[in-house]
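can u do me a favor
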């Protein structure tokens, strides 16, 4: 992992040199993990920024809270580690100012991901400098995944499969939603642990699956990103599991969704779910190198049109160390698909407040088409209990 991160940083510096960029500041956790190989557990939400400063011709610099520095030093390949403290002259602002040097003309930042407190500091302390966006430069580098990255994502796919199996097993008339969420967490954590050791860099990677389970059931099925509650399943209930913020491993995040039905399925729910499955399969059948991203979306849209349904605004999204990367499978995105691109490809429609169809898988584009990263039956799924 660390050698991979080191090579990515060298590639970024090459791109920076070609574009005349002297140094860049990264504050997004996914970007820091991608380049420096570590991530923290406090994070910016506590007002405690960790930053990575990448000069074009010098070694990178990590700026992190003193209390996390021992863990960071053990996880990263970066040798220049500068710490800061909450009180006194050793502030993160002082550490950042030293890393930036004398009044740079341009400061390259992640414009859409930089925390407000860091942005406010830069606006005030470097009023004469231009803040420019480094995100497209790094984003272009992240579009094509390396074999190492794809292997990690396939491990995440196996973990996600264990999670979905546990979700399926948890379903029964009268069972509460939160028990399904607990089953998913336990199964995923145990599966993730099988890919880890207790030595070296691995020992700092937690196998624990976390975040609140996205789970929509019964009359709330169309409420996107609803969380598991104390509601109890009833016969004929549709139950939708989305693992988009939970199916992840070593910071690589997948998209993975399935719809189940308690006991049996109504005719209308069957028609809607079959349309979602058919649309997803049409999109997948269109995926191969040389195809435009919007053509994949059009293939799914044609299925919905033929069946009398309206589609959503996209059919899929690129995945990686961030929850959302470029490109997207939607109308207007003319990116040409290439081997090594990874996507979450969805089938999803809502008819009214209680009828919806959902399915989603992660895939990697190959020379001959695509390979699945996630796998679970793509059919009408009934509860087992």
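np, heres the sequence
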């Amino acid at each position: 992992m660390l050698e991979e991160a080191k090579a990515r940083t060298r590639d970024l510096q090459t791109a920076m040199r070609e574009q005349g960029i002297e140094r860049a500041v990264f504050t997004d956790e996914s970007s820091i993990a991608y380049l420096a190989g570590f991530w923290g557990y406090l994070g910016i939400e506590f007002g405690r920024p960790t930053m990575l400063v990448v000069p074009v011709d010098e070694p990178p610099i990590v700026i992190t809270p003193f209390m996390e520095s021992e863990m960071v030093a053990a996880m990263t390949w970066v040798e220049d580690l500068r710490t800061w403290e909450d009180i006194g002259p050793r502030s993160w602002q002082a550490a950042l100012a030293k890393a930036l040097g004398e009044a740079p003309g341009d400061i390259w930042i992640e414009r859409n991901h930089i925390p407000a407190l860091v942005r406010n500091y830069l606006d005030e302390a470097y009023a004469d400098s231009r803040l420019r966006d480094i995100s497209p430069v790094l984003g272009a580098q992240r579009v094509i995944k390396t074999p190492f990255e794809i292997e990690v994502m396939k491990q995440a796919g196996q973990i996600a499969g264990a999670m979905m199996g546990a979700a399926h097993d948890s379903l029964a008339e009268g069972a509460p939603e939160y028990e399904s969420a607990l089953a998913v967490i336990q199964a995923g954590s145990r599966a993730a642990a099988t890919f880890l050791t207790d030595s070296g860099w691995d020992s700092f990677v937690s196998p624990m699956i976390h975040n609140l389970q996205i789970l929509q059931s019964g009359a709330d099925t169309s409420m996107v990103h609803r969380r598991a509650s104390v509601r109890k399943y009833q016969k004929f209930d549709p139950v939708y599991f989305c693992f988009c913020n939970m199916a992840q491993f070593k910071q690589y995040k997948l998209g993975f969704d399935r719809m189940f039905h308690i006991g049996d399925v109504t005719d209308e729910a069957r028609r809607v779910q079959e349309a979602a499955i058919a649309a997803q399969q049409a999109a997948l059948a269109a995926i191969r190198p040389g195809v435009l991203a919007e053509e994949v979306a059009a293939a799914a849209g044609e299925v919905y049109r033929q069946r009398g349904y309206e589609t959503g605004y996209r059919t899929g999204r690129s995945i990686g160390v961030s929850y959302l990367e470029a490109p997207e499978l939607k109308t207007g995105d003319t990116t040409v698909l290439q081997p090594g691109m990874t996507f979450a490809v969805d089938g999803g429609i809502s008819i009214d407040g209680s009828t919806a169809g959902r399915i989603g898988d992660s895939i990697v584009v190959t020379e001959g088409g695509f390979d699945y990263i996630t796998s679970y039956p793509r059919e009408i799924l009934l509860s087992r209990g």
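The chain has ten helices and 17 strands. hope that helps!!
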